[in-house]
């Protein structure tokens, strides 16, 4: 039997049977190890090697940092400052939500954390101001996709480990595309809000804006310390994650005084559960990837794709379509491990920059967080607002179209990703 057919066929069959993703990946990989006599005894060592990598230590700490920042309430000061600054323009509160998600993305490392932090503040405020609850939920979920691109990013850490790419360079490369995604969302927010008469709060006086900026200083200072330390050569991305946790705890204990032992326990518990899920996926997805590569499945799949067309623009369009569909079914980390062994030969064939390719791929996977059925941001927003998932999914369509437009710009204009790291001299 063709190894690739068994490996991917069993994987997708289990998914269709509603088997959890990590189980589907693990069973498919282990069965092929046994069926094709690759040595079932290598499994334990392979699983351990997949997670025993120093850069991956950044993942639990960035996840913990997001939980800490949310618990301390740094997002509330940012939202109040933006409210007074943006004022009663059409879609004003929606624009506050988008900007808040972009800014909080520089503190947190995951989309669901961004959705929860901004959504708990902005969704009730928007509904109270007359915005449709489905619109408010879908907007916050879509705006939180920028978190995956705005550094620090857990997704870039995983991609960097798999492809041996520079994580600081990936962080810098994600800034402009992340901002572009936020700007793309402004168009449907303004258009829909203008037609429906949805606005914002009043403009603040200069004194109020100044006071709000002062109150939000700890939230605005966090990305300066984290990213400034990385690009200033003070610490590595992994060490920056630890600094982010220490900063958040320090602000909560010393400044805000709202982070005690009970809050610490709940924060550590939530971060531990989230980290466990991620690392289990990393371990078994790595086994799946190794099995496919060892059997030569990835090389044959790449050759088959190149046989269809040698036009790089057409191939990029096909890859984007494939990744968008995969994002509907799988989480980002699983997609990296399943598809990157297939895509790395293509990158070498066309001499594509791995950093730009990583940004393009990550934009696809960020959009996947708002495309059902596996749309984690939508589920978080729906849970916050109480709106049915079906209703939130309908309202997300115009935001999905805007994000796809941003994706196409990132795909066909690599300079959007590479300009900033080149300008900063990040290697």
Question: What report would you give on this structure?
Answer:
The chain has helices at 3-16, 21-35, 42-51, 58-72, 74-86, 92-105, 111-128, 133-143, 154-163, 167-173, 175-196, 206-215, 217-231, 237-256, 261-294, 297-308, 312-329, 332-350, 354-367, 376-385, 389-395, 397-412, 415-424. It is an all-alpha fold. The protein has one domain (3-424).
Key structural traits:
78% helix; mainly alpha; single chain
Low-confidence stretches: none
By helix and strand content, what is the structural category?
Answer: mainly alpha
Mean pLDDT: 85
Please report the distance between the alpha carbons of the first and last residues.
Answer: 44 Å
Radius of gyration: 22 Å
Number of helices: 23
Question: How many domains, as an integer?
Answer: 1
What are the secondary-structure elements, in order, as H or E? Answer: HHHHHHHHHHHHHHHHHHHHHHH
Number of strands: 0
Strand content: under 5%
User: What is the makeup of the main sheet?
Assistant: none
What characteristic shape results from the CA principal axes?
globular
Query: Roughly how much helix do the residues carry, as a percent range?
Result: over 70%
């Amino acid at each position: 039997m063709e190894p690739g057919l068994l490996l991917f066929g069993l994987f997708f069959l289990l998914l269709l049977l509603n088997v959890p993703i990590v189980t589907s990946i693990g069973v498919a990989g282990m069965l092929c190890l046994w069926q094709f006599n690759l040595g079932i005894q290598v499994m334990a060592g392979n699983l351990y090697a997949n997670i025993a990598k120093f850069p991956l230590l950044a993942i639990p700490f960035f996840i913990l940092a997001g939980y800490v920042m949310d618990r301390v309430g740094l997002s509330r000061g940012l939202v109040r400052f933006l409210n007074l600054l943006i004022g009663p323009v059409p879609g004003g509160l929606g624009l506050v939500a988008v900007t808040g998600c972009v800014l909080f993305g520089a503190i947190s490392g995951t989309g669901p954390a961004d959705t929860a932090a901004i959504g708990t503040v902005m969704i009730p405020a928007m509904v109270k101001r007359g915005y449709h609850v489905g619109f408010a939920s879908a907007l916050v979920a879509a705006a939180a996709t920028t978190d995956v691109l705005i550094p620090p990013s857990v997704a870039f850490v995983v991609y960097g480990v798999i492809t041996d790419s520079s994580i600081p360079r990936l962080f810098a490369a994600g800034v402009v595309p992340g901002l572009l995604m936020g700007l793309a969302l402004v168009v449907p927010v303004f258009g829909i809000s203008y037609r429906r008469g949805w606005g914002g709060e009043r403009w603040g006086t200069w004194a109020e804006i100044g006071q709000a900026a002062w109150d939000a200083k700890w939230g605005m200072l966090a990305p300066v310390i984290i990213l400034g330390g990385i690009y200033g050569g003070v610490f590595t991305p992994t060490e920056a994650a630890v600094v982010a946790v220490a900063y958040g705890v320090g602000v909560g204990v010393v400044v805000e005084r709202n982070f005690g032992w009970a809050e610490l326990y709940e924060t550590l518990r939530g971060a531990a559960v989230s980290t466990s899920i991620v690392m289990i996926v990393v371990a078994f997805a790595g086994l799946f990837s190794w099995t496919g590569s060892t059997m030569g499945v990835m090389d044959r799949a790449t050759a088959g794709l190149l046989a269809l067309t040698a036009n790089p623009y057409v191939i990029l369009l096909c890859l984007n379509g494939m990744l968008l569909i995969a994002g509907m079914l799988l989480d980002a980390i699983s997609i990296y491990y399943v598809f990157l062994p297939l895509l790395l030969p293509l990158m070498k064939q066309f001499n594509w920059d791995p950093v730009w390719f990583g940004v393009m791929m990550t934009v696809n996977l960020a959009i996947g967080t708002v495309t059902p059925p596996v749309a984690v941001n939508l589920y978080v927003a729906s849970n916050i607002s109480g709106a049915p998932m079906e209703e939130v999914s309908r309202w997300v369509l115009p935001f999905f179209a805007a994000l796809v437009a941003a994706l196409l710009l990132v795909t066909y204009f690599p300079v959007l990703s590479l300009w900033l790291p080149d300008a900063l001299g990040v290697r």
